[in-house]
Every structure is written in structure tokens, then in C-alpha cells.
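Justification of resources, computational component.

The compute hours requested in this renewal are based largely on the per-chain cost of generating structure records like the one below. Each record pairs the submitted sequence with a full C-alpha cell output. That output is archived, and it is also reused by downstream analysis tasks.
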Amino acid sequence: MGPLAASGAFPAARKAAESGLSYTSPIEMRFGDSRRGVRIGAVLVGAGLLVYTVTAAVPPLDNNDIWIHLTTGRLILDEVSVPRSDRYSFTAAGNRYVAHEWLAAAVYAMAERAAGNAGVVVVAKVIPT
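The structure output for this chain reads:
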């Protein structure tokens, strides 16, 4: 029997106690044993801090050239050579093309093939272009 039932403050508690049933008053439910609520709250706060830390530590890709690097890198890996003519533009197709960042492009393409977009994000933070 809880302390409120023993005090007789709640007639339903006294009746439940006399019949052998347990009774927890609304006040005891609200303010009684709150350890479980504290644990859940701590887990939620910890998860929120973890998500915030990860998103703050990995800013978005702000390199607009990442798409040309990926496309050039895919060509390099598929053809095992650096492209020498322009294949990307409509008006200058076939003109001389200098892939001056060909090594970074190949590394981006390898990271994409190995780990998908997550691999590209990690490599983009390591290799400045």
C-alpha cells in the first residue's frame, strides 16, 4: 500500500488495499518513481546531441565542381585514360579538354564506387580541390 493509500486521502486506494489489490494514485504515478522517465530523457538528449555533433562536424559539400569530378573520374576508371576531348558540352563537343584535376576525379569516383555518396563526402573533406 502506498503512502497516500495508508493516509486515507483517496477512498479508492483504501478500498483497493482492503481487497488485496495494489493501487497507485495519480499523484504517485506522476511524481513517484521517475527514474525510468529520467533514463528515457537522458537517452533522447544524448541522441539529439550526437545527431547535432555529427551534422555540425560534416558540413555539406560546397564544391560545385564535384559533379564534373565524379563524371570525369568515372570516365578515367572506365577507359583507364584521362579524357582529352570535351564530351560534356553541347557547343564545344570534341574540342580539346584539359582535365587538370584528373587524379582527384579518379579518387572521387573510386570512393563513390566503394562507399557511395558517403565515400564522396568523406573524401571531399580530405582532398581540397
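The mean pLDDT is 76. The first helix runs from residue 3 to 7.
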